[in-house]
Amino acid sequence: MERVVVVGGSPLRGTVRASGAKNAALAILCASMLCPGRVVIENVPRIKDIEVMLELLAGLGAQVQVHTDGKVSVEPPSRIRGEASYNLVKQLRASNLLLGPLVGRFRSVRLALPGGCNIGARPMDLHFKGLQALGATLDVRRGYIEGRAGILRGTRIYLDLPSVGATENIMMAAVLARGQTVIENAAREPEVVDLANFLNAMGARVRGAGTDVIKVDGVENLVSEVHYAVIPDRIEAGTYMVAGVATRGEVTVTGVIPRHLEAVTAKLREAGAEVVEAEDSVTVRGTGPLGPIDVRTMPYPGFPTDMQSQIMALLTTVPGTSLIVENIFENRFQVAYELQRMGARVRVEGRVAVVEGVERLQGTSVRATDLRAAAALVVAGLAAEGRTEIHNAHYLARGYEDVVAKFQALGGEVRTDP
Ligand code: EPZ
């Protein structure tokens, strides 16, 4: 999917179902390497990032099977054969989540150091700090993380930042360590909670996930057969909600956990959209008058950075002056320069973007720079007048299952342009 063409102008109307959460599934697939037996994971989204992760696990010696209905089974090896190659790691930064399980169970790891990406430097100092505190020796040599460990011993670790990845890597490494590990200032994201629930389904003893203090009591062994279903993707769901409001339509997303969408729901309501929450679905209506809002991205339960580009696309068409502050990543405003090509009035000053709403965006050719920027450009194209051609649209396939079909189901004129 190199290019996607969007013809804007008509409100989205209808219902789509959320897929499994990319960022929960990626962490859970890494954690499956801790299991001495077979792991069956359901509700895994069929997206490129998952394909690459499965290739990585197979390259390490795991038996991997993808079933048709979003079910994946993984049978980890009894010892690691091969390494996580740079070729695969450069495609998927989340491969860094193999660090914890490989050190935790196999006591050794050789993993290409994922570089930075378009949204920031993505350092791993907190991952290293945590694993070294547990007793691992980690070096970076010629672009590879090389790790060794004897017996890992539980300890208290304070995270300077509530890093999702560092929390997850430390949690996974601590599962088989001796004694108790306490992670302070831990990330509270739902994907962290889902990983903790998966680890406990494997016989681990993780408590406090979802709060800023997580306790892991090391165990000797894990069970040898695990079945688990991944939570729905709150960022995918939020993207369709924002698209519904941006096109002044009415969209229902089913199969969600409304609580996980609270910050997005609150901001859409503040902007004047109607949002109705049911047991496992959310309906948005953008038909009424909309007004400007301020958005600050924060760790969960704050407004998610992964929704920042998408809400910027919406706000470029909302009358008045909106303010967006990106507190998580240092370079996550690149989509603003593509939106300017569509007639948006966005001024970027460091971590702050000032958005002056315009009457209509104008369709044109634009280029995606990352996964969420690509999603934001689809939202903008649907709200714009005329035709928008999105280049580098392959980013979309990394994180949005059946994205063209889902937008078409809502009446969006979206198609791939081979
Ligand atoms: C996870 O990335 C998600 N990826 C990201 O989603 C998401 O944007 C991010 O969490 C924040 O919610 C996956 O779960 C696979 P962090 P992660 O460690 O774990 C700094 C998407 O679009 N930091 O919470 O890498 C870091 O530079 C992706 O789906 C350190 O300084 O994010 C950043 O500024 C994009 N040192 C901040 O913390 C460290 O050791 C948050 O990063 C680690 C992180």
**Beta-strand proportion:** 15-25%
In total, the number of domains comes to 2
Helix content: 25-40%
Number of strands: 23
User: What's the gyration radius in Å?
Assistant: 21 Å
CATH class of the largest domain: Alpha Beta
CATH superfamily of the largest domain: Enolpyruvate transferase domain
- Mean pLDDT metric: 96
Q: What best-fitting shape do the alpha-carbon axes yield?
A: elongated
* N/C terminus separation: 7 Å
Structural class: alpha+beta
Protein architecture, described:
Strand 21, helix 12 and strand 22 form a beta-alpha-beta unit. Strands 21-22-1-23 form a 4-stranded mixed beta sheet. Strands 2-14-16-15 form a 4-stranded mixed beta sheet. It has a 4-stranded mixed beta sheet with strand order 4-5-3-13, with helices on one face. It is 31% helix and 25% strand. The protein is an alpha+beta fold and 418 residues long. The radius of gyration is 21 Å and the shape is elongated. The model has no long low-confidence stretch (mean pLDDT 96). Helix 6 packs parallel to helix 7 and helix 8 runs parallel beside helix 12. The chain folds into 2 domains: 3-19 and 233-416, Enolpyruvate transferase domain (UDP-n-acetylglucosamine1-carboxyvinyl-transferase, Chain, Alpha-beta prism); 22-219, Enolpyruvate transferase domain (UDP-n-acetylglucosamine1-carboxyvinyl-transferase, Chain, Alpha-beta prism), CATH 3.65.10.10. The protein has helices at residues 22-31, 48-59, 86-89, 99-106, 125-133, 164-174, 190-201, 234-246, 262-270, 308-315, 335-341, 371-383, 394-399, 403-409; strands at 3-7, 13-17, 38-42, 63-66, 72-75, 108-112, 137-141, 144-148, 156-158, 180-184, 205-207, 213-217, 225-229, 250-254, 274-277, 281-285, 294-296, 321-325, 345-349, 352-356, 365-367, 387-391, 413-416. The protein has 14 helices and 23 strands. Bound molecules: ligand EPZ. Ligand EPZ binds next to helix 1, helix 5, helix 6 and helix 12. Ligand EPZ binds at residues 22-23, 26, 94, 120, 122-127, 161, 163-166, 187, 191, 305-306, 328-329, 371-372, 399.
